[in-house]
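Page 47, continued from p. 46.
Same chain as before, 83 aa.
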Amino acid sequence: MVSDLIRKRPIWFGGEDRSEASMAMFYAALGPRKTKGIRLAVMDMWKPFRKATQSHAPQAAILFDKFHIMAHLGKALGYGAQD
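Result:
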């Protein structure tokens, strides 16, 4: 699912999985003119999403969501580690 965070609504449901090819389907559906207008993409830290965005919307800055950043930070600091 892809959402418009400004309008607070989903704008695309599609793809078959969490692959780069599935994310590329969003950019194909959006079209090149609208894709060029993307300035910021907020996503989890999933590499296929990042790669698809860098490939199809290289002008867009990528911002990782806070949940995943905090999870990685906590792990790096030793919080939540199982001994």
